[in-house]
Amino acid sequence: MRWLKLHTADGTLIEAEACDVGFREVRIENGLLLLNGKPLLIRGVNRHEHHPLHGQVMDEQTMVQDILLMKQNNFNAVRCSHYPNHPLWYTLCDRYGLYVVDEANIETHGMVPMNRLTDDPRWLPAMSERVTRMVQRDRNHPSVIIWSLGNESGHGANHDALYRWIKSVDPSRPVQYEGGGADTSATDIICPMYARVDEDQPFPAVPKWSIKKWLSLPGEMRPLILCEYAHAMGNSLGGFAKYWQAFRQYPRLQGGFVWDWVDQSLIKYDENGNPWSAYGGDFGDTPNDRQFCMNGLVFADRTPHPALTEAKHQQQYFQFRLSGRTIEVTSEYLFRHSDNEFLHWMVALDGKPLASGEVPLDVGPQGKQLIELPELPQPESAGQLWLTVRVVQPNATAWSEAGHISAWQQWRLAENLSVTLPSASHAIPQLTTSGTDFLHRAG
Q1: Where's the Glycoside hydrolase family 2 catalytic domain (predicted)?
Q2: What CATH number belongs to 24-314?
């Protein structure tokens, strides 16, 4: 980031307007979304503007809290669903480092057909006003890397017109729109929502293809980035690991945006003055318990849901492989060197530490480092032996405190440590119980 100041030719400063300036290149080439020439894997989340006391009126403290939590949990991108956000949000994303999909405030969800308005030329002026003011207001923010034509509005001629307008005034950024699918040129990125990895969902109204089917469409070479996936309501993200296995397997599949960031509930107080999260029929409306606003990775007060830990783990930038006593550490960072991290390892017997150590990480962008563990002491009793590795940041950063753990992995070891440690996979342990008339298998 740089500060830009303008003066007259003779150096006289008459009036000043300051803004953050960043330099980066975003383009699509050979089916890949490239940032400064490197394929970008989107670790994204959808975010509504929501405050537990003030509703959609946001303050700077809550915005910063959101950004810090996102970065601490390995998110690198946010989709402004489904409207342009407060202007300060973009400045904060510029400064802290989050990629932004800026989305026009257009949604005709509920119309039959869904493109009833977006294919009607009488609605083009209203749609055009919302798109043009978004682009004109936010185009100088380097954090904005993609424009979005809106959400769930089918596909109509108005989308095509607005796509052409954006490309004419700002050819430096791709444009995405989910409703366009693969049948239109109104999107540079194929961005379906809730596509499963390898299973089609034949809904009568809008069939949802699997990710693998999207990738196999003949002649299709646009990047595939899920605009919404892994719906985070309740006990969620059980299939998150499968998505991230696919993201790392298929180059054109460049990540996605989890739905969504924060529960949209409001704080109320009981007769004793204790706060609680209110939603559904908690406001004297028709009795109901509708909870479809409660689908975030964090509660309205930003307390994390358990699923946030799973998101952090699957999205972590360091990947690990164990072979014998050698740990291979691979970095998925595109541009930064691991200059503020240590690898902490520990072997524990039934949860009790047996041996541990710490090694400085020295991994370049997209590089690898091999770490050899020392000979380990033989345990005095039988039990489960586990090796746990953690990447620890000893120093504070702009978005994390000293001691922040950014990545971790764990393996079950052979009980006899005098034998060479086996190569270990990330396979989920299998648990099977059975009886005379039932069989239960987990894992």
Answers
A1: 26-319
A2: 3.20.20.80
